[in-house]
């Protein structure tokens, strides 16, 4: 009897320890969420004071918040089926680290024995921020260590972040598989869950050393490189909240320095995720002609380059379409896999800029994300890419076709001359004095 | 007096030798260029006798020579040879790999076709598959005596 009591006491102690751990995790993630919200693309110079605006959400307010979602046209379809999953009678408030405010927690029912779900609420500024925190444990789960998948979603099912842990140690970030769209009923499997949604592993490039040892869950938001893979094709909710960014990632983490071009952009989605797709922007086409103010497609050694920039408020990204290794205008050498290159500060002879509304901005970023995977010197090169972007932006650009020894196609020499001679659309601006393109600007992670 | 004359004579001979050597290099390149645009000369023969090339580069070398010949014949002009320092064509020095004893020449076949070549210390021509992308980045910087990365 005494032994049983001791065992129970020990088990309770372990459970309490785990609960305390969880509270710290939750606290950290809300801090991270808040950090992500505060670190919007165009607020790079603003001071960050996360704790100043956190407030406890009253239990009744949290319940009302969930129930009111039922009436929101945007979320009805996704939330209504989940309404009866919330255990409103078991709502609790739990302590957070580094703040006296409380986290309001509404447990959620699950059918799977290895799944645990809770809706979490905090007031950030004047708004209630919420998320569902899913844990999908492996068989090796114990009271002291967790192995499995942690998934964070918004209440409507939109993905925030997922990652795998093994014995409390961070293993790898996960992103929704592109095949099934997250948020659809088929994607969420509540029965005997092995994996919550179709997830793919994502490799995050780091230039800083990550400690291979134990990653403290308390400080997870600080230690694990966090990046949400924004994908315009992926139904992430849209608007400013659709491209949610949680946690601190330095911009350099997603840009890999390669040999050619000098700065290869590893993931164009990451490179462009700073932009608020609900707002307008400016698109600039830059043309570096082989010979300035000349339509020649090559100078004997130089074929020039065409690249683009997108600017929105204090955020700017400059990039172009490049072959991954090398090409040459000879049979068997004129095609290669493509990469995007960071073309900030690249020389140009002519530029053309035009404002684009939110829809066009979305289309341009979607086009870049799905650009042809093969760089073909004759049929789809850097100039073709820029021309297509320009067309989406509403610029009446021609094909700018010309030939060079060993091939022919759209080229910077001809495009530069075409831009010099074209009639400008309203609100567009042209620069015909050579200069260097501007630098990238804005840190949004 | 005799000593002074001897010194002046040595200097003059040195200048002549240097000049001759530089002209000799230029003449080698010029002869190669003239043979290249001469339709009666088989390109295979030019390749074998004048060019230093790797086996894997044979096809692309022949394609290059054929293309240059065709481009020249579209607009035949007087061929002008210049060494890299005197050329108007801007090939970035870091884009061209010159080994010891090699010299960079530009051959202006006509107004729209100026191509760089390397002459090595064995008087062999090395074709440069140099292709830059404006003010930053190379599309190709391989040589005929090396294997292109494909």
UniProtKB/TrEMBL annotation, chain A:
Keyword terms: Membrane, Transmembrane, Transmembrane helix
The UniProt record lists the keyword Membrane: yes
Tree of life domain: Bacteria
Transmembrane parts of this sequence: 21-37
Name of protein: Amidase domain-containing protein
UniProt organism field: Flavobacterium erciyesense
TrEMBL record, chain B:
Top-rank taxon, per record: Bacteria
Key words, A-Z: Membrane, Transmembrane, Transmembrane helix
Membrane spanning residue stretches: 6-22
Protein name: Lipoprotein
Organism, as annotated: Flavobacterium erciyesense
